[in-house]
Amino acid sequence: MRIEGHVAVTLRDKTGSVLQFVEGPNTTVEMSNNVLMDCLYPIITDNQLWDTRSPSTNMTYNTTFPTGARHIGPIGASASDTPQTFARNMIGYIAIGNNINSGLGANTIGPTNNVANQNSSDFYPYAHSQLVYMVDEDIDLTSSTYCKSVSTVEFPTGFPKLMRFSTTFDTTEGNVPNGVAEVGLWTLGSNADVNGQIQAGQPSTTTFMRLFAHRVLTETISKTTEGSLDITYTLTFSA
Amino acid sequence: MKITGYVQAVLRDRDGNELGSFEGSNAIVEMSNNILMDLVIPNDYLLSQGAPPARAEATNMTDNTTFPSGANHIGVDAVNGGDTTNLSTNQISYICVGDNLGTLSDGATAWNQQNTDAPDPETQVSMVDGDFDITSSTYCKKITTVSFPTAKSIRFSTTFDTTEGNVPSGIAEIALWTAGLSASGVGGALFGNQPSLSTSCRMFARKVLANTITKTDDGTLDITYTLTFGA
């Protein structure tokens, strides 16, 4: 099986007219391996211990966001907390940034990236697929400037192997300084309530959130309070 | 990302001595697309659109809930605090064996070549074995160990004990299956060594063996099934 992503971003004015449209394919990042493995890991016994997973590039065993080599999925500790922990690895948010970083920060160590429309692999010591975070050094996933919950999930008609996540950044949201040049697909992390559900909007915490896929746009989108931004992120499963 | 499978099976006598082994790689089946999509879809509260949207039918799958088809979404549907069964529906939980003799999943094509795979193995939605019963210890065993042998791989293991896995015509196919609606222990844990019912169980990957393994109650069979994720 191969999993591939495709991003489409549409900037509209207040009347809904299209001002700019950018789209393109991308691969999922390495962290998606961990997300899917944690999804598939069975609960064999009550209160079971989880096997340790080796850290791969740019990931560690610690619990500090946004790393995550270790298993963080459902823990099976009790009936009351599993809906929350099950939900950790569901895809729930779309984040945006300007893809500019003076040093790729503490989360993703590397040299400066000041080219908004160029993949970080040109500057980053590792491949683009090894990113575990947005490149934008100012990003705050709990802020409406950078992150929005997925509002619609579709299985496009006639395409049994496609899954599409969509959201819209309204006029007051997504107004990233220096423009939007990167889009990421993120898991829910610890934002689900006791029933495994989340509120629309932004995450309240970044704990256990993981980057599943990341796309650098070929054009920067300058979004202001004069417009809205529709984003669709499509994953294609090819088994 | 690319996902591939790898199977190892070791036949032992009652003393644990190795009598024979088999190993080989395989592709995962199309149903795995649905399983993974159902695992990452957020729940309906977030979506505010009721039940998850309908999914188009792929080859050999229908929208009904009859075992083992499943183009429809199954799993997290309307989550509530006590509903841990639905949450674990799509986790890989069982390893199944069969003789690879029976009718293919198209429902019409008879298959009597034990060590040769079906023409389109990726479209199989169940074992080929016509006598396959996932609730029987002859054909199915709960996974007992999960490990991460490398950073990008997850390994599922089980052992068919002397009284288990004694498939009448020998073992010629091995597969990974999801929990379905059998998980009802605390925190979604599985009860028993086999599913109590086949409802919502789905096949994730399947391998046809080049040589049939003849297992009797004089021996045990260790099986490991490794999935490697290539992102």
Gross geometry of chain B:
globular
Overall 3D shape of chain A? globular
Cα-to-Cα separation, first versus last residue of chain A = 4 Å
Strand percent estimate of chain B = 25-35%
Radius of gyration of chain B: 17 Å
Number of helices of chain B: 3
* Widest β-sheet, arrangement of strands of chain B: 2-1-11-8-7
SS-derived structural category of chain B: mainly beta
Average pLDDT metric of chain B: 87
The number of strands of chain B is 11
Please give a structural write-up.
The complex is a heterodimer of chains A (239) and B (231). Chain A is mostly beta strands. In chain A, 7% of the residues lie in helices and 30% in strands. A five-stranded antiparallel β-sheet of chain A has the order 2-1-9-6-5, with no helix packed on it. In chain A, strands 4-3-7-8 form a four-stranded antiparallel β-sheet. In chain A, β1 and β2 form a beta hairpin. The longest helix of chain A has 10 residues, at 31-40. Chain B is mainly beta and 231 residues long. Chain B is 8% helix and 34% strand. Chain B has three helices and eleven strands. Chain B has helices spanning 31-40, 44-47, 84-87, and strands spanning 3-13, 18-26, 92-98, 102-103, 110-111, 140-142, 145-150, 153-160, 171-178, 203-213, 219-229. In chain B, β4 (102-103) and β5 (110-111) form a beta hairpin. The termini of chain B are close together. The mean pLDDT of chain B is 87. Classes of the chains: A mainly beta (239), B mainly beta (231). Chains A and B meet through α1, α2 and β5 of A and α1, α2 and β7 of B.
